């Protein structure tokens, strides 16, 4: 758990300032206790309904985090061949994997079909054309894992949500999901296709959602559409409500009302004996993370003052990309009483490289550490090497122990794949 003890920031019993002396900043630290507590909150909220949690690996794909969630019983929601390999690396059971993604490549499809997946999410008619061709071929050669493929249709229920446009995914203008009319035709085609079984419908509304209403509205729309034709319900055992559960940080009680969501889903799915899947990413890991950074310079501009720190948009791009607000706190809160109003900015050569704007922080000396909260989700997983900055280390804090779960990237890695080799073939323009 993340808290202050004697005005020092502590994550699962680990004093972050002392840890920073050893690890060096910047780095991401995660609280295993917070992840366990969040997992338990979901399980409890959906008590009484058969629920499978499929953690969205895109939020934070480090193997240690995946293992922790796997031990708690979670499976994984994957969106690329790379994420699929991450799950394979930790020996995740194929039954507990779902694979989504609007643009799966044929080689990715083949590897998933060969090695197995619990539910494969189809996102378009064109994808179904390709998948059914690959299934027929692999089945004929005996290469199809389990002999049949269980699929879900990802539906686009045209439900709006209150979040940033970039992470709202279920309005009709979105690239995600299949509209009901097209889905009706696909259900018929799947019914006629051997070795492909329709077992679920999937909806993902968006990310960072605090309202229960849209989840229930989407589910009601899907159920009403299923009721129009018995074929649409035939063989369907699951409804996958996607992810997106919002929460307001480790020091805040703001969060989606999971108990109300649990009750609502139970009312809708219970009478139909449908099981539920959900794919939370941020809710499980977001508030467990802090990005620890050091103050390099205080810089006083003509109209604004800045704290220039050693972390940047390369380590947490959410403020730059979505204008997201992440609380920033001093790692040692017992210093100066003098408050400053500053922008907290990184060293990258972009004005968009900021971690916080107009923040009230104490007067700090160079070398003092700051913690950027809620960095556990979409922090490290969206990190980049821009400005030739190596990716930072990751540390998992658990019951008074700190585990280095990813080393700071060696600089040499950044140019290791650069080469100058002639590409064989005849490419001359004619
Ligand atoms: N399921 C599907 C199909 C998804 O596309 C996503 C996230 C999730 C589950 C998990 O959503 P979560 O529970 O983490 O909200 N980079 C953005 C978030 C992008 C989310 C993409 N899809 C951010 O930093 O806010």
Distance between the termini: 65 Å
Q: In CATH terms, what is the fold-level topology of the largest domain?
A: TIM Barrel
Largest sheet: 9 strands, mixed
* DSSP helix fraction: 25-40%
Output the structural class: alpha/beta
Q: How many DSSP helices? A: 12
Query: Are any ligands bound, and if so which?
Result: ligand LLP
Count of β-strands: 20
Which CATH C-level class of the largest domain is it? Alpha Beta
| Residue fraction in strands | 15-25%
Q: Determine Rg (CA atoms, Å).
A: 23 Å
The CATH H-level superfamily of the largest domain is Alanine racemase
- Tell me, briefly, the overall form: globular
Low-confidence stretches: none
Mean pLDDT score, rounded? 96
- Which second-level CATH architecture of the largest domain applies? Alpha-Beta Barrel
- Our count of domains comes out at 2
Structure, described:
The protein is of the alpha/beta class. It has two domains: 2-29 and 286-414, Lyase, Ornithine Decarboxylase, Chain A, domain 1 (Beta Barrel), CATH 2.40.37; 61-280, TIM Barrel (Alpha-Beta Barrel), CATH 3.20.20. The chain contains twelve helices and 20 strands. The strands form three sheets. Strands 4, 13, 14, 15, 16, 17, 18, 19 and 20 form a nine-stranded mixed beta sheet that branches. It has an eight-stranded parallel beta barrel with strand order 5-6-7-8-9-10-11-12, surrounded by four helices. A three-stranded antiparallel beta sheet has the order 1-2-3. Strand 8, helix 6 and strand 9 form a beta-alpha-beta unit. The radius of gyration is 23 Å and the shape is globular.
């Amino acid at each position: 758990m993340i808290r202050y003890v004697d005005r020092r920031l502590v994550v699962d019993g680990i004093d972050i300032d002392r840890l920073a002396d050893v690890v060096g900043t910047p780095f991401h630290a995660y609280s295993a206790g917070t992840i366990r507590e969040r997992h338990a909150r979901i399980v409890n909220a959906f008590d009484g309904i058969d629920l499978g949690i499929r953690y969205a690996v895109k939020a934070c794909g480090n193997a240690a985090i995946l293992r922790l969630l796997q031990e708690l019983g979670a499976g994984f929601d994957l969106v690329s061949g790379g994420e699929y390999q991450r799950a394979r690396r930790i020996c995740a059971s194929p039954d507990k994997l779902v694979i989504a993604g609007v643009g799966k490549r044929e080689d990715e499809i083949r590897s998933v079909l060969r090695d197995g997946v619990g539910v494969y999410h189809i996102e378009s008619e064109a994808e179904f054309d390709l998948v059914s061709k690959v299934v027929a071929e692999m089945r004929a050669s005996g290469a199809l894992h389990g002999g049949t493929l269980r699929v879900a249709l990802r539906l686009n229920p045209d439900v709006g949500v209150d979040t940033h446009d970039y992470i709202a995914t279920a309005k009709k203008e979105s690239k995600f999901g299949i509209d009901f009319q097209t889905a009706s035709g696909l259900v018929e085609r799947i019914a006629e296709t051997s070795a492909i079984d329709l077992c679920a419908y999937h909806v993902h509304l968006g990310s960072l959602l605090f309202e229960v209403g849209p989840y229930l509205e989407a589910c009601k729309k899907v159920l009403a559409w299923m009721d129009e034709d018995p074929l649409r319900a035939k063989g369907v055992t699951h409804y996958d409500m996607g992810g997106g559960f919002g929460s307001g940080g480790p020091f805040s009680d703001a969060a989606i009302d999971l108990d109300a969501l649990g009750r609502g889903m139970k009312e809708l799915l219970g009478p139909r004996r449908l099981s539920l899947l959900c794919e939370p990413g941020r809710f499980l890991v977001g508030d467990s993370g802090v990005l620890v950074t050091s103050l390099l310079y205080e810089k006083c501009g003509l109209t604004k003052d800045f704290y220039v720190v050693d972390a940047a948009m390369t380590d947490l791009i959410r403020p730059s990309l979505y204008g997201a607000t992440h609380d920033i706190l001093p790692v040692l809160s017992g210093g100066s009483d003098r408050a400053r109003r500053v922008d907290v900015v990184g060293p990258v050569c972009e004005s968009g490289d900021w971690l916080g704007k107009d923040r009230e922080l104490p007067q700090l000396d160079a070398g003092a550490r700051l913690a950027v909260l809620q960095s556990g989700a979409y922090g490290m997983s969206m990190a980049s090497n821009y400005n030739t900055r190596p990716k930072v280390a990751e540390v998992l804090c658990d019951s008074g122990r700190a585990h280095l779960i990813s080393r700071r990237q060696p600089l040499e890695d950044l140019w290791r794949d650069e080469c100058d080799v002639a590409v064989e073939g005849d490419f001359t323009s004619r």
